[in-house]
Design brief:
Elements: E1 7-10, E2 17-21, H1 35-38, E3 43-47, H2 73-86, E4 92-97, H3 99-110, E5 115-121, H4 130-143, H5 146-150, H6 152-156, H7 165-176, H8 179-190, E6 205-210, H9 218-227, E7 232-236, H10 243-246, H11 248-260, E8 279-281
Parallel strand pairs: 2-3, 2-4, 4-5, 5-6, 6-7, 7-8
Antiparallel strand pairs: 1-3
Helix pairs in contact: 2-3, 4-8
Length: about 325
Amino acid sequence: MTHLLHHRVDGPGTAPPLVLGPSLGTSLAVWDAQAPALARTHRVVRYDLPGHGDSPARLIRTGATVAGPGATVADLGRLVLELTDSLAIETFAYAGVSLGGAVGTWLAVNHPDRIRGLALLCTSARFGEPSGWRERAALVRARGTGPVADSAANRWFTPGFAGEPAAEALVADLRAADPEAYAACCDALAGFDLRAELPGITAPTLVIAGREDPATPPAHARELADGIPGAGLTEIAHASHLANVERPAPVLAALSAHFAAEPDRPNGDGTRHGARTAVRRTGPGSAVPAGGREEGFRHPSGNGAGPPIVPPEADTRPLEA
């Protein structure tokens, strides 16, 4: 009986390790478009969340009650550490989508000695009001994942991509997820809020947002980039919540550049080698030279010509992970 997350390892065994975390409702297949290229330079480890893909549902605590809390993102983070320990991986770079990104944020805050570099895709430091997640958990416990799968494509992809085979395959993953484990992940998201801890993250960090993401809008990415010292921010045009699936090439380019510059450790003065502070917006004519500006450029401090930041906490809609 395995006590580890189901996982797949690609790439040279001697290459720097890179762990890829999936979003809620999907499987490690969410990284299919990037994993082969990343595995040329890294030892890529992909995993399934509990009850998703081929990971056992029993790996996560289920059923929040009055007597005690349900699952937490910390529980998921510890499962990732158990997995990397089993693979004799001491330190690693990490990239995660949505809930997978929340796991990476938790790891960077609580185990900074393990995280060499961090990429946070279409994620948030707080995924909206807890009540929305508790309602979704109750719905799935009562009726299974079918009701949320019926509307998943509209939350995850732009209308022009929702019917693509890659999109349909991920929606099928959601339908196949264990309802109790999925609901437990919703419990974890209900209790997740690391906004106050962001300034303590020391790993070189890149934040990636889908410009048309209704689930974790770009304002959430800006909050992450503003809160994490030296973080860079890239917005992907014509992409919704699963930007790495819908626009695989620009996401791969951003990840490859970020992890290629991965330093050994922070500088002694608290700054980091290769730390990027500019927003990069992908799309026709949007390439920006180092240190250059573009329409919509903004510094993570909030200075510049970018759009005003809408505080994510002002949006009470249930988000996505």
